[in-house]
């Protein structure tokens, strides 16, 4: 089979894996941040959840802004030049490589997701400055050793790496399993590496109701956790000030609007 035919067959196989009859987390989130890569079923549950808990839109927007602040902090203040972004989601404005390479053109970024919808858009994540590199890996979060092995093709594991897992660990139903995955990933990174996590939290009745409605829709469930559980992911690491904080309150930009009540917490921490 020719390379062209192989690519066509691979594309058809990926598209066949996409289910447009039930809501999907990446498309649902894409709708909330104003993207166009979603279907009617995603917009329907999005509108339903807006009625239940409009604050989830703030979670989506402020989480994206947190990503930018965290990446810039790590580059400008900590000298990090390598990023491993797991649970990438659909490309939108200011993706990790765009933020990173604006601040440091030589930055290297590896995106990881095993979702066919994200895979179809992976080309948008593979643009890079001439000095830097980007890669996309179709690997499952539940296989941390495979993630690290594949990422070594792009990242230099003798130098610090920032592991980014935003709004993804809620898909791992068992908390102990989620912690194990994070520990395994961090264990494979060198001293001086960083962990960046944000996730929705069970800090209001509205957020809990929104989570229940989403999980009842037929989509892959997303489990909101207690703030103490978010903090547990950082055990053994050195938290960067201000520690575990609501997403908008983590090193906010001076002119940022106040959205302090957002039901999502985050943290950035260094591996000793």
Automatic annotation (TrEMBL):
Entries under SUPFAM superfamilies matching the protein: S-adenosyl-L-methionine-dependent methyltransferases
Pfam families: Methyltransf_19 (PF04672)
Domain of life: Bacteria
UniProt GO MF annotations: methyltransferase activity
Gene Ontology biological process terms in this record: methylation
Nucleotidyltransferase keyword on record: no
Keywords annotated in UniProt: Methyltransferase, Transferase
The protein, known as: SAM-dependent methyltransferase
